[in-house]
Amino acid sequence: MKILLVDDNLSLTTLLSRALNRLGYQVTAENDSDRAIRTIQKLRPDLIILDLEMPGKSGLEIYGELKISSQLASIPVIMLASLDDAGSVRSEVFGCDVLRKPAGLDDLLTVIEKNLLHHNSDPVDRDIHPTHSNSKKREVYENILQ
Predict the structure, then answer these.
(1) How far is the C-alpha of 31 from the C-alpha of 13, rounded, in Å?
(2) Which one of 17, 21, 57, 141 has the fewest CB atoms closer than 10 angstroms to its CB?
(3) C-alpha span between 33 and 52 (Å, rounded)
(4) Where are the alpha helices (DSSP H) in 44-134?
(5) What CATH number has the domain bearing residue 14?
(6) What is the pTM (predicted TM-score) of this model?
(7) Measured at the alpha carbon of residue 73, what is the angle toward residues 68 and 75, in degrees to the nearest 5?
């Protein structure tokens, strides 16, 4: 399974990459948020771990771009947020898991496995694209980009 880490903290992406690679995941790190969408389009990861607060494009802006793209919308995302930011990002609004930094590896692995299991389940049992079932979510994503 391919995982893309998008975070401006090189130390964090290096540590997480090493840990997840040892567990059998193919991990790529992108430390420049302005290049994230291009990297996602090229790599087509099975899962994205995305920092909320970065210089350049924020994690919410990147997430919004993903969710309005017909080719990228189905890729599951785990959002990483600092203690201050985590309260402002609600997983039920954005439809992704939000973990507070620093997230423990066990917690992160649990959420990774849950997302990959859900992503690889029968499409009939899940919401593939936000426009198919929830126009409110799409409206929120588009508002993020404005």
Answers:
(1) 8
(2) 21
(3) 10
(4) 59-67, 83-86, 91-94, 105-119, 130-133
(5) 3.40.50.2300
(6) 0.78
(7) 155
E strands along the chain, which residues? 2-6, 26-30, 47-51, 77-81, 97-100
3-state DSSP assignment of residue 31:
coil
For residue 67, give both structure tokens.
């969710």
Dihedral-angle region of residue 86 (phi above 0 means left; psi in -120 to 50 means alpha; beta otherwise): alpha
Provide the number of structural domains found in the chain: 1
Q: How far apart are CA 83 and CA 96, in angstroms?
A: 17
Q: What is the pLDDT of residues 37-84, one digit of tens each?
A: 999 999 999 999 999 989 999 998 999 999 999 999 999 999 998 865
User: 52 is in which domain, residue-wise?
Assistant: 2-145
Distance from C-alpha of 6 to C-alpha of 29, rounded to nearest angstrom: 6
